[in-house]
Amino acid sequence: MSEIPGLIAAGDLPIDDRAAAPTELQVIGLDLSITSTGVARIDGSTFRIRTRQKDGPRRLTVIRDVLAVEVAEQRPHLAVIEDLPMTTGRMSIANLKTIASLHGVVQAALVDADVPWAYVTPKTLKKYATDNGSASKQDMTAAAFLADGATFDDDEGADQVDAWWLRAAAYDWLGLPLFTMPQAQRDALSKADWPDAYAQRYALGVAA
What we know:
Distance between the termini: 19 Å
Oligomer: single chain
Number of strands: 5
Strand content: 5-15%
Radius of gyration: 17 Å
Strand order of the largest sheet: 3-2-1-4-5
Order of helices and strands: EEEHEHEHHHHH
């Protein structure tokens, strides 16, 4: 990512040295899936966008259109998206193409709304939430309850809890943690792909 002349170079600012971000910060979390996309709204509430296989490529537009409305209504300062895993394992070429296409249309919707985004890998998110990069879906749900009493209805795929943790991760990274987390787990967030200029702006205490 590009750097802004005169500001802090990307990666030069330790997480604990960041000034607190403005209290009006609004973040959404997105766990993208062609079948069931998890969304965490700016108020922390969550829901799923479910699509039908028979709708084929139109599933992309269903997710895009719902998110476009959400973004227009909520006007977030930042979206945090769960990244693809570093290794795809047995994921088929067709599935890879589909998820890549979904990320593309979602990015386009965010560009249209002038909303920057960050990417957090599943391993990093699990490390932050549970101190275990291989945590199960049940572990993530239990950790959310322990951290903030959060519960999730109709979330067998853990789409909503992942989106919830993505939102929480951004607040922690930008100096406004929503709840107390062990420092070792907070440190894991330095491995995420945060927008350089955006992180630097908040590091300097300047409102978005």
